[in-house]
Amino acid sequence: MRYISTRGEAPALGFEDVLLTGLATDGGLYVPESLPHFSLEEIRSWRGLSYSELAFNVMHPFVDDAVPADDFRKMLNETYAVFAHPAVAPLVQLDTNEWVMELFRGPTLAFKDFALQLLGRLLDYVLEKRQQHVVIMGATSGDTGSAAIEGCRRCEHVDIFILHPYQRVSEVQRRQMTTVQGDNIHNIAVRGNFDDCQRMVKESFSNQSFLGGKTQLAAVNSINWARIMAQIVYYFHASLALGGPDRSMAFSVPTGNFGDIFAGYLAKKMGLPISQLVIATNRNDILHRFMSGNKYEQHQLEHTLSPSMDIMVSSNFERLLFDLHGRDGLAVKTLLENAAKGPVSIEDYRWKHARKLFDSDAVDDKATCDTIREIYQQNEYLLDPHTAIGVRAARNCRRDPAVPMITLGTAHPAKFPDAVAESGLSVQPPLPAHMADLFEREERYTVLDNNIAGVQEFIAKNWKNT
Ligand SMILES: *Cc1c(COP(=O)(O)O)cnc(C)c1O
Fold it and tell me: What SUPFAM superfamilies does UniProt report for this protein, alphabetically (predicted)?
C-alpha cells in the first residue's frame, strides 16, 4: 500500500514511513493511494469474530508487509486485551434502535486509546526492525497526552515528551499523564498556555538540530494516518453486532479535528453499509458552519464543557477536501493556503456532494447539560459531555427511525465531573476500578519556563541515548 499527500507534491511513502512521519513535506496529510474494498459476503463472514480478529481483517491491507500477518495478529491481541471490557467496544441501548458505542474502556478512558495503544506497538515494532530510535514530542490540553503516554510506556525505542500548560489542565487529566512510571516518559509542565506548548512543538519539528542528529522527532497527533486507520475498525464492529452488513447503520460522531468521523466515511467507502453520518460539534463549529453554508472560516476559540473538541480549524478535514476535489492536490493546496488568510468556499456541486455524505449539528453547553440530565433521568446512564453532544446531534438529525443510530461514546463521564455537576445531577461518576487510586499515585513532572531553548535542552539531555 502506497500513501500520497493531500497537497500533491510530497513523495509517496510506504506504511512504515507514513507511521514515522507527521505532516508531508509539502504541508499535506498522507492518505492511502487506494482503499481496500470488502464485499457484503466477506463482511458477513466476519460475524462473531473477536475485536482483534476483526481489526486484523480491516487493517491488514493498510499495513501490508510492514508487519507480517502473524506478528500483526499478536500485536492486535495484545493491544485490545488491555481494554477493560471483553467486547472491547460494547454497545449500550438508549432507546428503540438507538445506541451508544462505549469507546472509553481503555487505559485512559477515552477513544484515543483505540489508536494510540496500537500506534505505540507499531512504532516499536518498526523501530526494532530498523534499529532506530525516535523522540515523540507533543503538546496536550487533555486527552491526547495521556493516551499517547499510555501507548508508549512499554516502547523500547521511543522516548516521549509531553508538554502541558502548568496548572492549566484538570487534576484528573494531569494525573493520568504524570503517574505513569517509565524512564522513557517525560512530562513537562510549561509556565505558559496551551498555544505556547503547541508553538514549541511545531518549531521543534521544523528545526530538529537540538537533537544533534542522533535521533528524530515523531508525531502522534490526530493527523497520523495510523490513528485514523485504527478508528475504522469499530464502525465494522458496531454494524456486525447490530445485524450488518445486511442492514445499514447511522452513526453520530462527536468531533473537532474530523478524525473519528473521517474514519466512518472510510468504513463506508470500504463497503460497509452506512446510510447516515452525523458530524456533531460543540460551539467550536467550523465544520457545522461549512456543512450548512459552504463557508470554511476560523472563529475565535471558545472554551466549552467538552474541551477535547475545542478547536479553531479541523486538521483532518483536509483529507475529505482532497476527495471532494477529485484528489487534485494542487486544488487542495490553493484552497488551504487561502483558508489560512480568510474564509473560503468550494464549488457548489462539490459542497452538495459533501452534504450528501454528512449531516451536521452544533450543540452548545446548555443543550449538552440538558442531554446529560435527560438521558440520566430516562436511562440511569451517565454520558460524558462529548458523548452527550453526539446523542443530541443524533436525535436532531436522524432521518430514518428504522435504521439503528449509533453514537460514538468518546469518553468516560468520570473524566469530566464538572459537566455532570453542571447538568444539575447530584451523582458523582466514579473512576473505574483500575484507576480508583489515581489520586494516591506518585506524580512525576518537570516544570520549565516558557522558553523553547530550555525545553529543547531538557529533551536533548533526557532522551535515553543508547
Ligand atoms: C479527541 C476527542 C474527541 C474529538 O476527536 P476528533 O479526532 O476530533 O474526531 C472527542 N471526544 C473526546 C473525549 C476526545 O478525547
Answer: Tryptophan synthase beta subunit-like PLP-dependent enzymes
